[in-house]
Amino acid sequence: MIDGKKVLFSGMQATGNLTLGNYLGALKNWVNLSDEYECFYSVVDMHSITVRQDPSELRQRARKLLTLYIAAGLDPKKNCIYYQSHVSGHAELAWILNCFTYMGELNRMTQFKDKAAKHADNINAGLFTYPVLMASDILLYQSDVVPVGKDQLQHLEITRDIAQRFNAIYGDIFTIPEPFMGKAGANIKSLQDPSKKMSKSDENTNASIYLMDDPDTVIRKFKRAVTDSEAQVRYCEEQPGIRNLIEIYCACTGKTPEETEKEFDGKGYGDFKLAVGESVADILKPLQARFEELSRDKAYIDNVIKENADKANYYAMKTLRKVQKKIGFPERIR
Ligand code: TRP
């Protein structure tokens, strides 16, 4: 608890360009949580180096992502928006928690198995202990809730296990975090293969809408989106392509699937795809304008970076000092 509010933590990696899926599935919903929770939203750049990165590109992407958080509507006075690498407590706690995590547990992580298969030439120890760093992110702020996608639930589970194990030995040190299941964020799929989620690392650029895509590109990608064979705008399991487009349309317009079916009753896929494309272009336009405006204000962003790193650091150190003391590290002499 901070000032009577529950603590919420989440983060995104600065790798790849953010997609409509990231926005509708996560970022857009984060904005509504900042009144109810004390929120920490990190740009988790330390996680990014588990796969090889170009340094200047990583730096640029991290700054873009942080700026996008604000452009999406997160007020940096209410939400702690910061770079993970600016708070050394993440790495320090991660080391400690590594010593309370078993190889067998980490071996079971499906994301590790997937990434190891994908990056067979660079299966580094960081990739293996990635979930421990993530546990440190969450536990460092005594987080109560963590909004995450399905693919991260296993990492949240191991975070809870590590925290409970630690607490069983040393007393109630860590708050045990819960996955945040509030109003479920939209689960946006690839435009080229609706059985996969829309991903910023998809090699087929037609599969994803990037938040910086211009209106023509957005409309072209929706025209090319895979659909189904019923030739009807109907929200059902048998039409995964159309179903995905309906979900996108609803997330952008606030309409329900039933209203959408009615609206396009008797119309073909072509009309519908155009409408979806336009609804997406309409929500991206103000976001992009705000992003451009913020990007030009270097002093403002720099100030957010500094002030929020200080704030994050303050809470992180509180937890870290407690942990260090409990495990028997010598007291600092002042
Ligand atoms: N691993 C998460 C992802 O790739 C990002 C992340 C890092 C995260 N630390 C976190 C998410 C802590 C929630 C909480 O999506």
Account of the protein in words:
- The protein is mainly α.
- It folds into two domains: 6-180 and 298-327, Rossmann fold; 205-293, Orthogonal Bundle (Tyrosyl-Transfer RNA Synthetase), CATH 1.10.240.10.
- 54% of the residues lie in helices and 7% in strands.
- It has 13 helices and five strands.
- The chain has helices at residues 20-31, 45-48, 55-71, 89-98, 103-107, 110-118, 125-140, 153-170, 215-224, 240-253, 257-263, 269-296, 298-327; strands at 6-12, 37-43, 79-83, 145-146, 178-179.
- The strands form two sheets. It has a three-stranded parallel β-sheet.
- The longest helix has 30 residues, at 298-327.
- The model has no long low-confidence stretch (mean pLDDT 95).
- Residues 9-13, 44, 47, 134, 137-138, 146, 148, 152 line the site of tryptophan.
Set out the fold topology:
Elements: E1 6-12, H1 20-31, E2 37-43, H2 45-48, H3 55-71, E3 79-83, H4 89-98, H5 103-107, H6 110-118, H7 125-140, E4 145-146, H8 153-170, E5 178-179, H9 215-224, H10 240-253, H11 257-263, H12 269-296, H13 298-327
Parallel strand pairs: 1-2, 2-3, 4-5
The chain binds tryptophan.
